[in-house]
Amino acid sequence: MSAVVLALHGLLVEGTVATIEPVLAGLLVADEPRLVLDVSQVTVCDTTGAELLVGVAGLARARGGELLLAAPSPAIRSWLGVAAGMSGIATFATIEGALEADPRDLLGPALPAPAICVEEPPPPLSPDEHRTFPHGRPRWRVNPSGRARSRRGPASPRR
Predict the structure, then answer these.
(1) Alpha-carbon torsion 44, 70, 27, 47, what sign?
(2) Residues 71-125: tens digit of each pLDDT
(3) Where would I find the beta strands (DSSP E) of the chain?
(4) CB contact at 8 A, 32 and 64
(5) Which residue, 32, 39, 44, 85, could crosslink 54 as a Cys pair with Cβ 3.0–4.6 Å?
(6) Number of other CB atoms surrounding residue 59 within 10 Å
């Protein structure tokens, strides 16, 4: 299966997405489009840029094709596990790996799997046991005066 390779460079931000979007949409008019984006030279990517990549991937999937990212720069890598939908875009370490869809070149998720929010309660203690903190005491501190503190120092007296 053939693929179109397009290299993006510079800023992938709100001001540049409007010029890039029509080009990407034009590449996806064919049936079963396969688009490889070389994003190694993207220096800055904001939420609009990440949304563009997710939208293009969705459009490619809707037409029976796919969007593949190749050689992501740190700006793109920072969005891989964060932006909704970015984890669904196959990302490869090299352009060659993306063209061949080589699973050995496939990059894993940028972030570890999210933690489970609901934990099982700890088992009950026997009468002779007690719970201790890992370092002997809690890490938080209680303000004995009950006054609020700011980052600049203690709170000023109320007038």
Answers:
(1) negative
(2) 999 999 988 878 778 888 999 999 999 999 899 999 864 333 444 455 556 667 6
(3) 4-12, 34-45, 66-70, 90-92, 149-150, 153-154
(4) yes
(5) 85
(6) 17
Question: pTM, whole model, 2 decimals?
Answer: 0.66
Please name the helix (run of DSSP H) or strand (run of DSSP E) that holds residue 100, with its range, or none. Answer: helix 95-100
For the chain, give percent helix, strand, coil, nearest 5. Answer: 30, 20, 50
The residue among 55, 39, 33, 34 whose CA lies nearest residue 7 is 39
CA neighbor of 90 nearest in space, from 82, 78, 102: 102
| Single-letter code of the amino acid located at 118 | V
The number of helix segments (H) and strand segments (E) in the chain equals 4, 6
Instruction: Enter the tokens of residue 63.
Output: 């037409």
Tell me the CA end-to-end span of the chain in Å, nearest whole number: 75
For 59, the enclosing helix (H) or strand (E) is helix 47-62
Please list the residues that pair with 41 across neighbouring strands. 9
